[in-house]
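Table S2 (text version). Query chain:
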Amino acid sequence: MSVLFCCRCVSLSEDTDERLPLLHPKLPESEKPESARQPRPAPTVSRSGQLVPKRVGVKDLDQRFSDVAETFNQQQESYDIMKERIISLRRTYDCNNDSTLTLTRCVRKIKEEHVDVYL
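Corresponding structure-token output:
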């Protein structure tokens, strides 16, 4: 059995042009590259409205999209009603802040006012 073994000795040179660091060194703020794109304002997300499904011409898919749209629209309607009722409660019990802590305080206030009814 014969084996051919070849070895090449490479000497390390002082020339660093051949090797570049994998990670670029941190650049100062003035030298950082900037994007040429103009910043666009973020789209505003609205939590109201109805979902209208697009028809694709495939009966099964159209039915599924219609079912999803119907479910979404029912949930959206329930959300809007709940939101209106919370606003009404806050007005009635003078808790007009939008934080959830205020809603908790509002519920405590209601319980305190009606404690005699539940005893």
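Notes on Table S2: The mean pLDDT is 76. The CA atoms of residues 50 and 74 lie 9 Å apart.
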